[in-house]
Amino acid sequence: MKPHEHAAAFGTLDGELRLGGMPLSRLAARVGSTPFFAYDRGILDARVDLLRAALPSRVELSYAMKANPMPAVVQHLATRVDRIDVASALEMQAALDSTIRPERVSFAGPGKAPAEIRQAVAAGIIVEVESTTEIKRVIAAGDELGVTPRIAIRVNPDFAVKGSGMRMGGGPQQFGIDAEQVPDVLKHYASAGLDILGFHIFAGSQNLNAEIIAEAQRRTVDLVSELAEYLPTPVRYLNLGGGFGIPYTEKDRPLDLEAVAAGLHALIDGPIAERLPEATPVVELGRYLVGECGVYVTRVLDRKVSRGKTYLVVDGGMHHQLAASGNFGQAIRRNYPLIVGNRADTPVDENATVVGCLCTPLDLLGDDVELPLAEIDDLIVIFQQGAYGLTASPTAFLGHPAPAEVLV
Ligand SMILES: *Cc1c(COP(=O)(O)O)cnc(C)c1O
């Protein structure tokens, strides 16, 4: 998708990008400083509505908070999704501070410390165990607290998903218990005083291929149907993961959500109805929910020409948005979509390279981008920044101030 297509999703007002119903420069004046992240709740709500309309009603939506843990975003989603998935004690606290009920919170991720597990068990959160060590810690916490812990087994599947930006299942992994070990583990811990709700399989992130996602979900249901025989109770929780991607580069096409939904309908009417009738299927999404509602806004501090190449130096950079610089798991760096936000309706008339204010050539936000002529104090807007932005970036690097974040 091209930058202007992303801009069209927000719309323009007085020749500027519209954010939260106002022209960008007015929002920037209200925020009071650049750079900043803005998350547009209209776009966020539209994304939830799109998912609800497409996915079978039996499928529950979980928000994977690590994509964007800003408390206002978390609370906004807490009233709109069915569940929240957390991956640390701080995220757990943010979920517990929202209006979501604790039994609707799940806790995944390798290396859960005994204190974190105890906190989750005490709150009644679903602990998605990633190893037998974690199972022992959960049992110990339950004994100590006098409660029955609710858990799900995170399984490292015996298949891998192609086409993901980051693969998180299949082969050797630090995530989950290897599928072939799960039967023995379940036999061993069947009467250990745990309420084992079901399984969680998350195979990868940032996938734009609906067919591959649907295939992973089919194989997940097959695998869980086999593992279900070793569970003392029926499977009630069937976390299918997610990994739905969003288009970052010009050649990326948006995910065909209808095709993913068709696959889920078929699974629910077929193997889930036959073999897992009591299971609630859960799709767990971070990036797809929040990625597109967010922009990163920076101000042009300098405009210079070096040996024929025009540079726009902005007051933000990779310390706030590591992924846009290409340093967050991309094999090949490609430009994220960006525009001059206060000249959203002005035609392009130069090629400029947008760099951040850090003292490293890695701090590249847009290489040789077609833009209208930008001047000092103009506002450069990068799209698709609602997920894995601020909290996935090395903010301490070079000691610049932290950016503001606003939900508008
Ligand atoms: C990171 C993560 C997610 C979210 O992934 P996205 O690609 O952002 O949707 C979901 N589940 C688990 C277990 C994760 O670790």
UniProtKB/TrEMBL annotation:
Work out whether the entry's keyword set contains DNA repair.
no
Pfam families associated with the record: Orn_Arg_deC_N
Top-rank taxon of the source lineage equals Bacteria
Cofactor(s) annotated in UniProt: pyridoxal 5'-phosphate
Q: Name one GO biological process term.
A: lysine biosynthetic process via diaminopimelate
SUPFAM superfamilies the record matches: Alanine racemase C-terminal domain-like, PLP-binding barrel
What keywords does the record list, in alphabetical order?
Answer: Pyridoxal phosphate
According to the UniProt record, list the residues that bear N6-(pyridoxal phosphate)lysine. 66
Gene Ontology MF term list: diaminopimelate decarboxylase activity
Q: Which residues form the active site?
A: 359
The answer to whether UniProt assigns keyword Hydrolase to this entry is no
Cite the InterPro entries for this sequence: Ala_racemase/Decarboxylase_C, DCO2ase_PEP1, De-COase2_CS, De-COase2_N, Orn/DAP/Arg_de-COase, PLP-binding_barrel
**Orn/DAP/Arg decarboxylase 2 N-terminal domain boundaries:** 46-290
Q: Which CDD domains match?
A: PLPDE_III_Btrk_like (cd06839)
Protein name from the UniProt record: Pyridoxal-dependent decarboxylase, exosortase A system-associated
